[in-house]
What does this fold into?
Amino acid sequence: MSNWQLTDLMQRPSAPQREQGSTYWRDLDWVLLIAAACVTLYGALLVWSGSLANYTSGGDTTSFVKKHLITVLASIPMGYVASRLNHRWLRAYTPYLYAICLAFMLAPFIPHLGARIAGARAWVSLPGGFTLQPSEFMTIALILAMSAVLSEKRDIESEPNNRDVRLALLLAVIPLLIDLAQNDTGTSLIMATVVVAVIAVSGAKRSWVVGLLALGIGGGLLAARLHLLKTHQIARLTSFVNPGSDTTGSAYNALQARIAIGGGQVTGYGLFHGPQTQGHFVPVNVSDFVFTVSGEEMGFLGSILLLILLAVIVWRALLIAFRADDLYGRLVATGITAWFAFQIFENIGMTMGIMPITGIPLPLVSAGGTSMMATWIGIGLLMNIRLHAVRSAP
Amino acid sequence: MWAAMPTEGVSVHGRSNWRLLILGVLIASLLATLAARLFYLQVISGSTYRAQAHENSVREVVNPAVRGLILDQLGRPLVSNQTSMGVTVDRHALRLQKDHGAAVISRLAGVLGVTPASITDKLAPCGTPGAKRPPICWNGPTYQPVPVATKVPVQTAITIMEMRSEFPGITAQMDASRTYPSPFGANAAHLLGYLGPVTQSQLNTQGTSLDPNRLRSTDLIGRTGLEKQYDTALRGKPAVTTFSVDTAGHVLSTLDQQPATPGNYVVTSIDAKLQAVVEKQLAAAIDRAHTQGFPGVAGAAVVVDVRTGRILSMASYPTYDPSIWVGGVSKTQYDQLMKSNALNFNAMQGLYAPGSTFKAISTAAAGTQGFNLYGTYPCPNQLKIGSQTFRNFESSGFGPISLKRALEVSCNTVFYGISDKMWNAAGGVKANANSPDPIAKTAKMFGLGSPTGIDLPGESTGRVSSRAFKEANWQAHKNAWCANALSGYPTLRKTNPTLADYYTSLDKENCANGFLWRPGDALNQAIGQGDTAVTPLQMAMVYAAVANGGTVYEPTVAKAIVDPTGKVVQEITPKVKSHVNVPKSVFTFLHNALPGVAENGSAKGDFVGFPLSKIPIAAKTGSAQVSGNKVSTSWFATYAPANNPKYAVLMMVSQGGTGAGTSGPSVRKIYEALFGVNGTSVDPTKSVLFGDAPQTQLPKIRSDGTPVVPKGAGSGVGGGG
It folds into this structure.
């Protein structure tokens, strides 16, 4: 271990055969893929159980989970496409992608088209009862756009210059403000985390990193102090600080979520048998609070397994960032890693009462088409970067 | 180009690598935090959350089991149950109504003849806004139908049940409550005890138990007497239906159904007919005290089978009507009870100086110390010890007399003399706490100074005056005594310097020598005065032990616990507490000497015309002085027949006068009833006890739960008697 170097992390898998295409399936990160598939399947079971409470008066009790599986089946091909995109092509079309996503983000403001869910006006209603949350795709577009800007025109010695960083920040600020305007605190937090991670790993001057961290922390505190946050944001945040304060609003959610998870104890009540889940005591337990179903019905054993699988996904994503063969790939993979990791932490953390309640789903587990699609596209992009690195290895 | 990375740490790539690694470490720590929190919630505090989840989603409907009966030795119910119609309201059914049940409640108020507001007050859970104070508000589980009316006329109940559609959520059903048949007029309130609501601390000690048989805030439990002692057996197990509900209160599924197990019966050794006689005679003794102009504030009587220690009867004055507790006692009633001290079970909770009844113990102690039980002892009218003079009762002297005669006439000076000799033999003032103290030792062997162990809650321990007690008492109080001796009562001195001087001198003496066991202490000890304090029950057990030759039983009231079909669940067999280790000759002497008290001694007047030749009564009177009271405590301790002891009978009246004058006549009446005495003839078939003896068999119980009282014994209730 004494002569371990950071670059050891960057050992790429050897690629004895280099013919394009024929090695695609072999060079995929199967560990990541299997972990993601397991989490998706496990999540479908949780969604099924969590949705049962909606059918106390009869009806097809599997209809909701069927809809969920349809979105899963629609999402995986999107990931496949993302894994096969050519880097040059991707970089070339990133500005358009960014612009389209930004326009899409404004759609919820259009009357009749936008939907207000849980106090946040960040959804677009689609026919068939589906809804889309454009800001989820915006996160991807932002990661791609910032990575492109920060890895542009780079030679070995130069770090991203101030102009690059300023441009990247400008790209980030626009969707961030829209998110805030839509009361979508959760997505804003994720975007902010991604921005700091990408700029830091790009090698930008330390002052940028320190400044951004200070701005993020200071701004958050100031916003809360000045009551800039709208009432639902305050309620959600204070219910985290003071969970006994309001038993019908957010504090009620937080308390019922903790009762569900804690009550699962070591082995859980068994799938479909959690009283908190089946009695509908935890709201939105198919989407934002899906982890409570795992906690209550699968117990500590099932839930720590889920946590380990999610950790494997994040670990593989981080490894792909390390082993990327260019800065662009590294920054895209870093952004996706930060996005996944923070969203997992925020979502599970809020169900367990250690994070404020913000309406964001658990990747690959929660019901909700946009998140499922965005996550699989993210996985596809990670594969894309890995395949690029493997093929360029000596 | 990216691959050919320079390794110097300052380069852009090196910086990127380090920052990525830091990001990885941050992410790892976030995920570890999640795992730790998960472990904390589920593994460490999981049980608390599970209890909360249970509270959220599990609802119970509880119907208490019918409480078991308490029977006398022949199966006559002393405590029974009465059923009446009650009306309950299911609040959740009402809530489903369009108007939240307002119309239903107003209809119900109409048929019950009350105002709708009085019903809604009862439905409001305690602590919610607008709810009245307990006991008006509802203090029970959320899903429990709320009782809004009791003792409803049957016709009203039928009306409600016939018009189901008019009264959704309203149920009329049978309620059981305690009733006291009082066979032969026996009250037995203290023995039986009463029921009261579960206290919060009892609920707290259960913690978060989910046991369907746990105590609930709506439960009644035994608070005193047999109801408390055998509460678990009597209570049975409630019918509990457990079902799960969702957040809106809809029933999801029935989780468990437990049928009710009715409470078991407690069969006692109490004889209702005898109990009635004893209570009547205790009341008569109190009246006798009052007629003589004495306060007669408290009294007790005990009849015990000396061969088993089973209590046949136990009564206490003042007493109360146990049925006032049914349905909740009113504040006025409760204050009245507290003011009159009627709740005290004086027979086993009151502590009194035993006076001359203690002389049987002093005699036994003398027997162990080599005193000649058949010798002659001087009985002057007073005895001078040092500077103090100790007088005989009513200052009469009898000259030199036998020890038997000393017991008959209750000569204090004989026992003073004996005790003074023992005191000198132990070393006089030089003796220490470990020196022999034969009278105290014998008293303790007879069970004084320790609980009898009766199967009733709350008995007093009492104490035995002794050298060791005085030493311990000094240790406990010397600091206060010495402090007062030093300060000299400055406040009192301002108003009354003479009294302050007197108190100061007393405290000086106590501070310096308060541990000293002086001759005066020894003399008082021998005649049951001084620090000795006993319960009437303890003294009854002393005479039972004298009667049976030295076996001190733990007295028992219950004989068995049987289920409602008569199957024996638990038999309560006589238990020996201790043996009195004195020579057999001592008991032989007492068996010969004590009947003389009734024939020829202090109780002679009480037994004029009583067939003592057929039923010799061993007796000892007592008229104990109590400091502060001018009127002595009347004691009458006996057992009979002296030649073949069966029963010990004891009566005590506090501030009642002499033993013979106040209690004696009542004890005689109790013996007449026990043995079937009519004038001078004895007819065992006339005994108040069925078959002239305590029952050895348990009463039979029919399959429907009704006990069978033997033909000829009489149920003691109703016109047939």
Notes: Chain A touches chain B through 65 residues (CB under 8 Å). Confidence is low (pLDDT under 50) at residues 242-248 of chain A.
